[in-house]
Design goal:
CATH class of the largest domain in chain A: Alpha Beta
Largest interface: A-B, 39 and 46 residues
Shape of chain A: globular
Largest sheet of chain B: 6 strands, parallel
Radius of gyration of chain A: 20 Å
Distance between the termini of chain A: 43 Å
Number of domains of chain A: 2
CATH topology of chain B: Rossmann fold
Structural class of chain A: alpha/beta
CATH architecture of the largest domain in chain A: 3-Layer(aba) Sandwich
Number of strands of chain A: 14
Helix content of chain B: 40-55%
Distance between the termini of chain B: 52 Å
Helix content of chain A: 25-40%
Number of domains of chain B: 1
CATH superfamily of chain B: Thiamin diphosphate (ThDP)-binding fold, Pyr/PP domains
Number of helices of chain B: 11
Largest sheet of chain A: 7 strands, mixed
Oligomer: heterodimer
Order of helices and strands of chain A: EHEHEHEHHEHEHEEEEHEEHEHEHH
CATH superfamily of the largest domain in chain A: Thiamin diphosphate (ThDP)-binding fold, Pyr/PP domains
Order of helices and strands of chain B: HHEHHEHEHEEEHEHEHHH
Mean pLDDT of chain A: 98
CATH class of chain B: Alpha Beta
Bound molecules: thiamine diphosphate, magnesium ion
Radius of gyration of chain B: 19 Å
Strand order of the largest sheet of chain A: 3-2-4-5-7-6-12
CATH architecture of chain B: 3-Layer(aba) Sandwich
């Protein structure tokens, strides 16, 4: 199977879906002539011309709304935010227009749109350019929220998102674009709302998504080697809808759970997972579910402070020791 | 700010068209009066923004577009929904929150939708539907149709970012959209002069090198003509226009508000009512002998009956079933 980067997997998804459906177009800052701020759209302008690959002014609210309006009349826009940090300016259109249109029109107007771009912390970009905002969007009924961790999932989920008739918030990992993985040639989709067991295990479940999948996998390797603890790594892939079946099934097997995410702790994705588990797997739990998140502070610039703010394998291992009573 | 008047001479031979404009204005006025009463009786809840006084704008403008053009409006949109082709009963039922409402009872007064007639809302966030309208215009260019988008909004919306971002992109990309600002002089209790550094809304267009025009919004024929020009520009040259219609609302901002409050005087309101758009057209029709008193009375009677039927339809329409709470969140 060909090995490609996460970036190129996304590029393939865009290219294939634009080939497949003339209603699909890509709009955003620097997506065309500049080839994408992170080069996800490399070559698309040349392949599809400026009718379908549209460079915008720096006007997140405006072009997000133009996308929603185009979707209202049946086009299938892919709106790229240079990063999700800047998408905060467009939250009104994502939440008040895209998410609610179907409901408040009594089912008349679906919004088949994808809002995509990189999120999460990068390296030393400081407070305004380093944040994982998935729980903001996952809070909103009417939105679907996905955050793939691997090139395979990135391509399959983006294709599924573009074909979905609902607004999908598609969070790419800013630090994942160079990650490599196997991606089959040809068409496939990964269904939205289905988690993936990335590593099987029997002693503890590590629930993660996007960049923290790597963190959890590294922790799992060390747990096996150093402590003889077998960790199961469950990659949520979709935050909303949340695949509670897979989570609960895993915890019923392992009886212990740690949730790892890059967002802040308060009202985070992990809080939702914990809520599901205490109701649906209460009798299976041998210990309280713990969470490893970013520190509850704006992201600092200093390298050491930044490292201390982000989830890492050490912190995951420490949490696993706690839930397994190994300390 | 003065609201310029522009008298139009009524051309004979167009009588039927003028009758139609008159009938529509009478209909939406009566509809709003009865909606106000129903609100007072507790049959309508939430925010309910009446259109009384502004009828010439929606009626004049919506008669200047084709049925396949798209219409977007703010939350003060009962009239727009009706004139765009929604049955008054379906609008009233929506205000009543009933299943037979044009949004199934889930949208309410501020979120009327009627896809069949390309009436695309009904939006409650000031200015937020301007980019949506530009998006529909973008789609029309993308597909190579000659559909035009007509977008209504209040003058308070010209101070919000969405207005500027949208006008810039609409001009830059040559989108076929008419931005029709219904300048009724107030955003809730704030006069335009207290909120905007530039008092003439149409002048904002120069920042985007966009065509503009200001029109007497109490004169239905003037609004019709001005909109027709802007629509032609959009259809034939793909160019947007900022059209400012100077109008006035007679009622409070919403049904929850007093009629004048602290921000305007009773005298101002009475003076504005002398410009009443319905009276004005009526006078012209009588002067030009294009309509008789008897015909006018007949028309009023028909309209009265139509609105009563709308109320009856709304009243008899069932509540949405409990399971409606969870439908239409996602499309399968
Ligand atoms: C972004 C936003 N801020 C505040 C409000 C509350 N609000 C509703 S209507 C309104 C005044 C708008 O006035 P204008 O645009 O002139 O329209 P009009 O009501 O006169 O038709 C305000 C402040 C809102 N709906 N949206
Ligand atoms: Mg106003």
């Amino acid at each position: 199977m060909p090995v490609v980067t996460y970036r190129d997997a996304l590029n393939q998804a865009l290219r294939e879906e634009m080939d497949r459906d003339p209603n699909v177009f890509l709009m955003g800052e620097e997506v065309g002539v500049y080839q994408g701020a992170y080069k996800v759209s490399r070559g698309l302008l040349e392949a599809f011309n400026e009718r379908r690959v549209i460079d915008t002014p720096i006007a997140e609210l405006g072009f997000a709304g133009i996308g929603v309006g185009a979707a209202m009349v049946g086009l299938r826009p892919v709106i790229e935010f240079m990063t999700w940090n800047f998408a905060l300016l467009a939250v009104d259109q994502v939440v008040n227009s895209a998410a609610k249109m179907l409901y408040m029109s009594g089912g008349q107007i679906p919004i088949p749109i994808v809002f995509r771009g990189p999120g999460g912390a990068a390296l030393q970009l400081a407070a305004q350019h380093s944040q994982a905002l998935e729980s903001w969007y996952a809070h909103v009924p009417g939105l679907k929220v996905v955050a793939p961790a691997t090139p395979y999932d990135a391509k399959g989920l983006l294709k599924a998102a573009i074909r979905d008739d609902n607004p999908v918030v598609f969070l790419e990992g800013e630090m994942l674009y160079n990650a490599k993985g196997e991606v089959p040639d040809g068409d496939y989709t990964v269904p939205i709302g289905v988690a993936d067991v990335k590593r099987e295990g029997s002693d503890v479940t590590l629930i993660c998504h996007s960049k923290t999948v790597t963190v959890a996998e590294r922790a799992a390797e060390r747990l096996a080697a150093e402590l003889d603890v077998s960790a199961e790594v469950v990659d949520l892939r979709s935050i909303r809808p949340l695949d509670t079946e897979t989570i609960v099934t895993s915890v019923q097997k392992t009886n212990r759970c740690v949730v790892v995410e890059e967002g802040w702790p308060f009202c985070g994705v992990g809080a939702q997972v914990v809520d599901e588990l205490q109701r649906r797997a209460f009798d299976s739990l041998d210990a309280p579910v713990l969470r490893v998140t970013s520190a509850d502070v704006p992201m600092p610039y200093n390298k050491k402070l930044e490292r201390a703010a982000k989830p890492n394998p050490d912190r995951v291992i420490a949490a696993v020791k706690q839930v397994a009573y190994l300390d | 700010m003065s609201q310029p008047a522009r008298l139009h001479h009524v051309e004979p031979g167009r009588a039927e068209f003028y009758h139609r404009l008159l009938r529509q204005m009478l209909l939406v006025r009566r509809f709003e009066e009865r909606a106000g009463e129903a609100y007072a009786q507790g049959q309508i809840g939430g925010f309910c923004h009446l259109y009384i006084g502004q009828e010439a704008v929606a009626v004049g403008a919506l008669n200047a577009i084709r049925p396949d053009d798209y219409v977007f409006a703010s939350y003060r949109e009962h009239a727009h929904a009706i004139i765009a082709g929604t049955a008054p009963g379906a609008v009233m039922a929506e205000l009543f929150g009933r299943e037979g409402g044009c949004s199934g009872g889930k949208g309410g007064s501020m979120h009327l939708f009627n896809v069949e007639h390309n009436f695309l809302g009904g939006h409650g966030i000031v200015g937020a539907h301007l980019p949506l309208a530009a998006g529909a215009a973008f789609a029309s260019r993308y597909r190579g149709t000659d559909q035009v988008v007509l977008c209504f909004f209040g003058e308070a919306a010209v101070n919000i970012g969405a207005f500027h971002e949208t006008l810039n992109m609409a001009a830059l990309w040559e989108l076929p959209v008419v931005f029709l600002c219904e300048n009724n002089r107030y955003g809730m209790g704030t006069a335009l002069e207290r909120a905007a550094a530039v008092w003439d809304v149409y002048r904002r267009a120069c920042s985007y090198d966009m065509a503009e025009e200001t029109v007497d919004g109490m004169d239905v024929l003037a609004v019709y003509e001005a909109t027709r020009g802007a629509v032609t520009r959009a259809r034939q040259e793909h160019l947007p226009t900022l059209l400012e219609a100077r109008t006035y609302r007679y009622m409070g901002h919403s049904m929850a508000d007093p009629i004048h409050g602290h921000y305007r005087t009773k005298e101002e309101l009475e003076e504005q009512k002398l410009q009443d758009p319905i009276q004005r057209l009526l006078r012209q029709l009588l002067d030009d002998e294009l309509m008789t008193d008897a015909a006018i009375e007949r028309m009023r009677g028909e309209v009265e009956q139509e609105v009563e039927e709308a109320l009856r339809f709304a009243d008899e329409s069932p509540e949405p079933p409990p399971e409606a709470l969870y439908t239409d969140v996602y499309r399968d």
